[in-house]
Amino acid sequence: MNQKKDFKINSISFLLLVFLVLFPKGGFKIANIPITWGYLLLVFISGIAFLGLLKEGLKKISKKRFYTFLLIVPFQAMSIICLIFNGWTQIGFTLSFVISLILIPFFFIIVLGSYMDRIELKFIFNLLRHIIFIISIYGIILFFYRSISGSFLEIPFLTVNIDDLGLLDEKHIDRGGVFKLISTYNNGNIYGNCVLMFLPLYSLLETSRTKMLLVKVSLFLTLARTIWIGLFLYEVMSSFLFNLKYARSNNSKNFSLENLKTFFKTFVVLIIFVAGVSFSLSLFNADISFIFDPKLGGREDQLMSLINMSFLPYKSFDTIAEIVYLSILNQFGILGLFLFILEMTSPLIINSRKFSSVFSGNYYKQACAFGMILYLVISGADGAILYIPVMAIYWFLASLYLYDFNNLSLINSPSLDMKS
Asked: What pLDDT score does 372 carry?
């Protein structure tokens, strides 16, 4: 009986990851609102899981998930009240907001929470490792194919929404005649945000340096300043703060020598990083001013939120723009910004002890936390928070981070051989 349940959970997990991570844009549109297979599956599976939850009772929900949800509720309650009393201006963005910041956290933390605590990590992590590499390689191939042929490879209903067929050139991905790497995400910033969130976990799962390098190259070729900044932060943080690679081996006792090696490796990586940025800029005839653009890539008007801010929300909901925190401040006021940050950091707050030490044994938990923190940082520049599948991936990582499995040593446990 347990084997049948495990098979069902693994099969459902496989479908969700394939259509949320591998083919996130596949689907169609209704009234110009994208309906994707991944989100349809998520709603359908969550509906069935919710019925099961009602039948089994809340006892199946771990305390960590329940307390996390308690920290999520205040912003969600404020959002619903604001929508009811202040209204909205655009139904598409409003629906995306409700799905991304109200429904998806509830789905992953509570409704699917008890099921995620029973998933087979070996299966999920191996699947993720393959999917991330596939979308990176496909993105690189598509990048050069577009440059050579002048058109995109498109598979309707799968790599592109059927209503966007032939329209990828219009999705703000043109950098002076060179088009951003978009992979199956149809947008360089969305692809970059999602892969950056997975990057710490991927670095823990993937032992091939060549594959790791190709994934990073794909991030470079997004030609997006925010993603470059995120990749730079990843290199620095992974070397000096989280040091996941060192935690992986955990053999050397000569910490001073190890720290010296880490410093040297980081220095070399940063030189390569600068060279990569220079090469990327040369692709579309730009210079260093592109990175230090005083107009923030056309986002300078969002700074007005700092001048016109209020404590409580008073206006109709419009959208959440690129600079997420300023946009939340503009839409929901100072109180709303505080509650939003509380929602987004709730898993980290509740489960904070799990990443307080890199050498605690739960290495994958640090990797999940690292990915979430990376996203929270780059959201100060471009979070793409209302776009599929950014929040689905963020809360998937959050749910993994809350995984109820005591003293799991991912790297050293023989029961979780990641290469088998």
From this structure: 96
| Of 156, 126, 149, 121, nearest in space to 29 by CA | 156
pLDDT at 119: 80
| 222 vs 240: CA distance, rounded Å | 26
**Which tens digit of pLDDT belongs to each residue from 15-30?**
999 999 999 999 999 9
Alpha-carbon dihedral sign for residues 67, 321, 82, 47 = negative
Question: d(Cα 386, Cα 319) in Å, to the nearest integer?
Answer: 8
Calpha distance 153→142 (Å, rounded): 7
369 half-sphere exposure, CB direction, 13 A CA radius: 26
Tell me the pLDDT band of 292, cut-offs 50, 70 and 90: low
Q: Distance between CA atoms of 377 and 176, rounded to whole angstroms? A: 28
HSE-CB of 55 using CA atoms within 13 angstroms: 6
Contact 221/140 with Cβ under 8 angstroms? yes
Q: At what angle do helices 37-56 and 2-17 cross, to 10 degrees?
A: 150
Task: Determine the 3-state secondary structure of 290 from DSSP.
Answer: helix
The reply to whether omega before 389 is within 30° of 0 (cis) is yes
In whole angstroms, how far apart are CA 369 and each of 120, 214, 384, 396, 398?
20, 23, 19, 11, 7
Nearest-angstrom CA–CA distance, 213 and 318: 39
d(CA 358, CA 237): 12
Tell me how far apart the alpha carbons of residues 186 and 52 are, in angstroms, rounded to a whole number: 35
What is the radius of gyration, based on Cα positions, of the chain?
21
Q: Which two tokens stand for residue 91?
A: 């139904």
